[in-house]
Specification:
Order of helices and strands: HHHHHEEHEHEHEHEHEHEHEHHEHHEE
Low-confidence stretches: 292-305
Helix content: 40-55%
Number of strands: 12
Mean pLDDT: 90
Radius of gyration: 29 Å
Strand order of the largest sheet: 1-2-6-5-4-3-7-8-9
Structural class: alpha/beta
Number of helices: 16
CATH topology of the largest domain: Rossmann fold
CATH class of the largest domain: Alpha Beta
Shape: elongated
CATH architecture of the largest domain: 3-Layer(aba) Sandwich
Strand content: 5-15%
Length: 373
């Protein structure tokens, strides 16, 4: 990409609001340099041309680069070698540039990343699940991406950090403006080992509509989106919808049917085809061969796997005979024939197998339950 094209993209990132598809379509048709020239000349014909023209004084590429140096950030534009190309799947809604702050390289860590998002007004259940699962994802070598908000977002970042993993925080404000302010320390910790990223220029505050547009970046940057607690109508479900529109995997964690904070997850599963995730291994399995088998930190694997019962190895016939046994006392061959509805030869053969397996034991001409039954 030429320097003039990169400068034009930096200008456009200052002129337009995140996710402006009308401006994006104009750039796709005319190119970034011609678009900036048309805005400067007042001949673009764009719906919001007056607003773009009013912002021209803020769109100085050289000043933007100098500010990045002062705050220790990196400015990357579309087409750069460090640009995460999966964002191009957003089409006309793709960002023109990104401001990145942190120790890790965004493009590299995003190759093996998944989004974990959820309610701000989360419950103890949701936060506990989120921290444990995100620690597991980090142990398995996956980058956890979230939005730095209260509730599930913060739990996701903290879970990954506690496992010494990499996490990415996508802000709706500039990378030098911690939002919420109470998470200033958390966002600084994320930058120490991971990445803080925004498509809004430094110094920009968080605005309501920018949270929704920010969510599309979280969805596009990652291979899958995991929703842990969400109300039916929320910014979290908008992230899931964006991921579905991009043909990314969406998984939802079920919760108590009485909890409003799980209603959005249940709706995603029931109405929108989200995959039900009951343990972190469900998520890792969906992520495919790049993933590895990993158990939750500090958790016995038996809590996450279906227990194997002694009767699982029996055939349908043996199970049927065993089920015909009375809960207490003895059963004769004739009684089992009647109760099981099978012929004497089948019952006798099954009793031989059940006896050898330790499920029943003979007592004269009758049989009783044994230890493994």
């Amino acid at each position: 990409m030429t320097e003039s094209a990169a400068d034009a993209l930096i200008c456009l990132a200052h002129l337009g609001e995140p996710g402006d598809q009308v401006l994006g379509a104009y750039v796709r048709k005319h190119g970034p340099v011609a678009t900036v020239e048309a805005i400067k000349s007042g001949k673009s014909g764009l719906r919001d041309a007056a607003g773009f023209y009013a912002r021209l004084g803020l769109a100085d590429p050289q000043a933007a680069r100098e500010k990045c140096q002062r705050i220790g950030a990196q400015l990357i534009t579309r087409g750069a070698t460090t640009w995460p190309t999966q964002l191009d799947d957003l089409g006309d809604a793709a960002p023109f540039a990104l401001w990145v702050q942190g120790a890790a390289g965004l493009r590299l860590v995003a190759l093996r990343s998944l989004a974990v998002v959820g309610a701000r007004a989360s419950t103890n259940y949701g936060e506990s699940v989120c921290r444990d699962w995100c620690a597991t994802f980090a142990d398995a070598g996956w980058t956890v991406v979230s939005g730095g908000a209260y509730g599930i977002d913060a739990a996701a970042h903290r879970g990954a950090l506690e496992a010494s993993g990499v996490t990415v925080c996508v802000l709706a404000s500039g990378v030098d403006v911690a939002y919420p302010r109470a998470h200033e320390g958390l966002i600084a910790r994320i930058a120490d080992s991971g990445v803080v990223v925004s498509e809004s220029p430094p110094g920009q505050g968080a605005r309501r509509h920018r949270f929704l547009s920010r969510n599309r970046i979280i969805a596009a940057l990652t291979r899958a989106t995991v929703v842990i607690e969400a109300s039916v109508r929320s910014g979290t479900t908008s992230t899931a919808n964006a991921a579905m529109a991009l043909n990314r995997h969406v998984l939802a964690v079920p919760g108590p049917v009485t909890s409003p904070m799980s209603a959005g997850c249940h709706n995603l599963i029931r109405e929108q085809g989200a995959i039900l995730a009951s343990c972190p291994e469900d998520v890792l399995e969906v992520l495919g061969p790049l993933s590895v088998t990993a158990l939750s930190r500090g958790t016995d694997s038996r809590l996450w796997s279906i227990p194997h019962l002694p009767t699982d190895d029996l055939s349908a016939r043996e199970k049927r005979i065993l089920d015909a046994f009375p809960s207490r006392g003895e059963a004769s061959l004739n009684q089992l024939v009647v109760d099981a509805g099978l012929g004497p030869m089948d019952v006798a053969a099954a009793l031989g197998i059940l006896t050898a397996g330790g499920f029943v034991q003979a007592s004269g001409s009758k049989w009783t339950h044994a230890g493994r039954a």
